[in-house]
From TrEMBL:
It comes from Amycolatopsis mediterranei (strain S699) (Nocardia mediterranei). Residues 870-935 form the HTH luxR-type domain. GO terms for molecular function: adenylate cyclase activity; ATP binding; DNA binding. This is LuxR family transcriptional regulator fused with ATPase domain. Coiled coil: none annotated. Keywords: ATP-binding, Nucleotide-binding, TPR repeat. Residues 1-30 are annotated as: Disordered.
Length: 941
């Protein structure tokens, strides 16, 4: 680009006048290497250099500046410039140099025919040598040949002939050449400059030099300009007048640069077609796509790509894209708009056939604005969905506006408008409201409209955009209401669920619109009604049997159809975040129903919510069931593998299903004793942004459990209480969702707040008895056993164990066994305690619950030691019996002994009764004497 773009090129063949050398920003090192050759030549020896670089990198300017510096140093300067239009004229460069070396007043130079070899090759070569030799007699000589790659063959031969004959003459030969330009078939570059020339490669300018050329202060803008142009000086100069305030350098281009570059590669077969295809494809450029879009045979395309890579026009990589964004934009600007649009539509089609991601296809569809592409609508919608959930709603809106340019049915137009409203709501809420009204006005087919609105609700994660979805669904429901309940019930059902899950307070009452379902006889409608009745039963916490029965009805034949047509798959109810969260909490205690639920959720199609990976819901449901049954290791594998997939989609902290998965994993890790991993995962979660979202309540519960387990009891206690308040605020009375009261009661006992612990235990037992399921009831009875004393505590724990044996909840059973064994040990029932704790250890180890297993094993060892008779008495008193008997003989009351040893009075009484029996005494009065005699007999052995 040096010659054509820069009109200040000196006239060919003219000597450079002695004037101050122009300053070249950023080229000081290269000029220093050239001027470093001056002393060698001034000493009487020849030297040579090659300045190479890509188009526009400043080779000509560097040569001119070096020539001016040479003139200042006393050199005679002769310059010649190769030109594409003169490359067929023999001796063109030689004549330019000869004219420049012509001394004023000298005899006329030989005719051009003699210098160009027409009269004889050897004579012409020798004639050129004599001209140069005679010039050196007047002083050192600087021969500068610009664009040697465009020189004619005869001139190249003359330079090669000259180079070996001026070794002992003060001649400096400097050539410039484009990198990668195919060499002349007769003369190589090294033939003209010798085998060891100084080679200077001009690379892109740095930020400071680029800023100077652009007239900018160093900073981010100058850096962006340098990146867009690769620091190429000609491109920077072309960019400068286009750099208006607010412009993005990566989006700018010059049609003149595009035209120049296209002209430059015309001499290479198929290179222009490949160049334009690369400009259209951009980052999607690949060998096969380039060849197909350019319409070039693969072998011809490969040769053209090879040439363009060597010229540094294309990157040398698996994807031969254009080197700089400014070059690509310039080529696109040089194309007529229709040509560009058609080529982008062709590129979109090729990428679709190649299985490219939707966002890459959509990028080309955006540019094909004047071309009608009916199949593009689905691609644009899918790409827009991904853009919204990756935090780029403006891009999503562009895709959807492009989709609206296609000819759409009323139903498809409504679907696109609703999706566009969702995207625009992120940055223009009033505009989004207008889109919703526009969508309502396009309603045609009632069934289709209800289906589209339902799909919209299923695709939303929650938060403010869910409120928009609920509002839109309400408007559409009102529009469809005249068609009767058959037309609107699926939409009402999903709207109810979406509103229940997004409200900050209690959800709406199902009974408020239940009468609308009375006339419906459609089996799908009845199953949906059963699902909502199940949810109502769960929220009320009144009957596990009713809830499970309704869920079973909803699961019957649900999801049998794998379509997305209206009313085709009412199993989607179970995919809704709020519904899924509560359904899995209830059905986890029902293994047969868990299997049915997983079958319903395990469909081939992708979930509506882009954050939810395919197959995530059945995996999560299975993991919850495994966790509930106490299979912690397998449950954690399910949760961890799923969490990695949520991380890949950016949904772990934002999508309700991702949050639920993370919370379940934290709870699982707490039971496994993996506290560091649980802490690390919780540190990633955003508790501030989670306020008001129902699934985040489980996250708060999991953090409370972790804090209690790791010694931060006060903070954990507050988390658990906060969890309970949020559940009450949501109107959730189902005690099996999170057993927060059980863990809060334990924390209260650890903090010495026995009244709070007793209150929480009583509330838990009442809620669990009302619900009636074995797991919550067994858990509540275990808690009751911790806050009660003596016989009441033991009866509660025995009942808890009996209840939990009827459920699949092995971890809760292991916990109850541990608490009962501990209580039995304290009461002196060591034989019973050993058997109970042995079962607890075995069961907790099967679950993988290491903290519980360690505690049960420690209590077991303590119980076994308690059965070992003390060595200092002959009556077989256990260590605990002996200790309590000695304290009683010293005059301490039962209450004082119980306080000192942290036992109940009942336990003290049991141990004393055992001591009386073994010592053969009737009561406390004889205790001192009996112990003294026993001690004397032991000492006298």
């Amino acid at each position: 680009m040096d010659t054509e773009v820069n009109p200040e090129h000196p006239a060919s063949g003219a000597s450079v006048p002695k004037r101050p050398a122009p300053r070249l920003p950023g080229r000081e090192p290269e000029l220093g290497r050239l001027t470093g050759l001056f002393p060698v030549v001034l000493g009487g020896a020849a030297a040579s250099a090659v300045v190479a670089g890509e188009f526009g990198m400043g080779k000509s300017a560097t040569l001119r500046t070096a020539a001016a510096l040479a003139a200042d140093a006393g050199f005679t300067v002769a310059m010649a410039t190769g030109s594409r239009l003169e490359s067929h004229l023999a001796g063109g460069l030689v004549r330019q140099l000869a004219d420049a070396l012509d001394e004023p007043g000298a005899s006329p130079r030989p005719p051009a025919a003699e210098l160009c070899g027409s009269a004889g090759e050897s004579e012409a070569l020798d004639l050129f040598f004599r001209i140069v030799r005679d010039a050196t007699e007047r002083g050192p000589l600087f021969l500068g040949i610009d664009n040697i790659h465009l020189a004619d063959a005869w001139s190249m031969r003359c330079l090669a002939y000259l180079r070996n004959r001026v070794l002992d003459l003060p001649v400096l030969i400097v050539l410039t050449s484009v990198i990668g330009y195919p060499p002349h078939r007769e003369v190589a570059l090294l033939d003209m400059v010798g085998s060891t020339p100084v080679t200077i490669t001009l690379n892109g300018l740095g930020d400071a030099a680029a800023a100077e050329i652009l007239g900018l202060a160093p900073g981010d803008l100058a850096s962006a300009c340098r990146e867009a142009t690769g620091g190429n000086p000609v491109l920077l100069q072309a960019l400068r007048p286009r750099l208006l305030p607010g412009a993005d350098p990566h989006e700018l281009g010059s049609s003149l640069i595009g035209q120049v570059l296209t002209t430059r590669v015309q001499e290479f077969p198929h290179a222009p077609a490949i160049l334009h295809a690369a400009a259209i494809l951009g980052e999607d450029a690949g060998f096969d796509l380039l060849a197909r879009l350019a319409g070039v045979d693969e072998l011809d395309a490969l040769q053209a790509i090879d040439t363009l890579v060597r010229l540094h026009v294309l990157n040398n990589s698996d994807q031969p894209t254009l080197t700089y964004s400014f070059v690509r934009n310039s080529l696109l600007k040089d194309m007529p708009q229709t040509t560009r649009a058609v080529n982008h539509s062709r590129a979109a089609k090729l990428l679709t056939e190649a299985g490219a991601p939707p966002d890459r296809v959509a990028a080309h569809l955006l540019e094909a604005t004047s071309i009608r592409i009916p199949w593009a609508v689905d691609v644009l919608r899918l790409s827009a969905r991904d853009a919204v959930f990756s935090g780029r709603p403006e891009l999503a809106a562009r895709h959807l506006r492009r989709a609206l340019e296609e000819r759409l049915t009323s139903g498809r137009r409504m679907a696109v408008l609703l999706q566009l409203a969702h995207a625009e709501f992120q940055f223009d809420p009033p505009g989004a409201a207008k889109r919703v009204r526009e969508a309502v006005d396009t309603v045609g087919n009632r069934e289709k409209a209800a289906y589209i609105a339902t799909a919209m609700l299923l695709s939303l994660c929650g938060g403010q955009d869910a409120r928009l979805g609920i509002s839109a669904a309400g408007q559409i429901a009102a529009r469809l209401d005249a068609g009767g309940p058959d037309a609107v019930w699926p939409l009402l059902c999903m709207t109810y669920l979406a509103e229940a899950g997004s409200r900050l307070g209690p959800p709406p009452e199902f009974r408020d619109f239940e009468e609308q379902w009375a006339p419906l006889t459609d089996p799908a409608a009845q199953r949906s009604r059963s699902a909502l009745l199940a949810l109502d039963a769960v929220r009320s916490g009144e009957s596990a049997q009713d809830a499970v029965g309704h869920f079973a009805d909803a699961l019957s034949q649900a999801g049998a159809s794998d379509t997305r047509e209206p009313n085709g798959d009412d199993g989607e109810l179970f995919e809704q975040h709020y519904f899924f969260t509560l359904a899995t909490a209830v059905l986890a205690d029902e293994p047969a129903h868990v299997d049915r639920l997983c079958r319903v959720l395990d469909v081939e199609r992708e979930p509506w919510d882009v954050h939810v990976p395919h197959g995530a819901l059945p995996t999560l449901a299975r993991g919850i069931a495994l966790q509930t049954s106490g299979d912690l290791q397998r449950a954690s594998v399910h949760f961890e593998s799923l969490l990695r997939r949520f991380d890949e989609r950016g949904g772990t902290t934002t999508c309700p299903v991702g949050v639920l998965c993370a919370a379940r994993l934290v709870e699982c890790w707490v039971d496994l004793g993996r506290f560091e991993a649980a802490t690390s995962l919780l540190d990633r979660m955003d508790f501030v942004a989670s306020q008001g979202l129902f699934t985040h309540t489980y996250l708060l519960y999991a953090r409370g459990r972790l804090r209690v387990a790791t010694g931060y009891t006060r903070f954990g206690f507050e988390d658990l209480l906060s969890c309970g308040r949020r559940l009450a605020h949501h109107g959730m009375r189902f005690p099996g969702f999170v057993p927060w009261r059980a863990h809060a009661a334990r924390a209260a006992l650890a903090l010495g707040q026995t009244d709070d612990a007793a209150r929480l235990a009583e509330e838990d037992i009442n809620a669990s008895a009302r619900w009636g399921a074995a797991r919550p009831l067994g858990t509540a009875l275990t808690t009751l056993g911790l806050v009660r004393e003596d016989d009441e505590a033991e009866r509660a724990l025995q009942k808890a164990i009996t209840t939990l044996r009827t459920s699949p909840s092995r971890l809760q059973l292991a916990t109850a066994l541990t608490e009962l064994g501990t209580l039995q040990s304290r009461h002196g029932q060591s034989e019973k305690a050993i058997e109970t704790l042995r079962q607890a250890v075995e069961l907790s180890e099967q679950c993988g619950a290491r903290p519980l297993a360690r505690r049960a094993a420690e209590e077991l060892r303590s119980s076994r030691r308690a059965l070992t008779p003390a060595k200092d008495n002959e009556h077989g008193l256990t260590r605990q019996e002996n200790r309590i008997a000695v304290m009683a003989a010293q005059g301490l009351t039962n209450r004082e002994i119980a306080t000192a040893l942290h036992l109940t009075r009942r336990t003290v009484e049991l141990h004393l009764s055992g001591a009386y029996r073994k010592l053969g005494i009737p009561g406390r009065a004889e205790l001192g004497g009996a112990l003294a005699k026993s001690s004397q007999r032991v000492d006298g052995r």
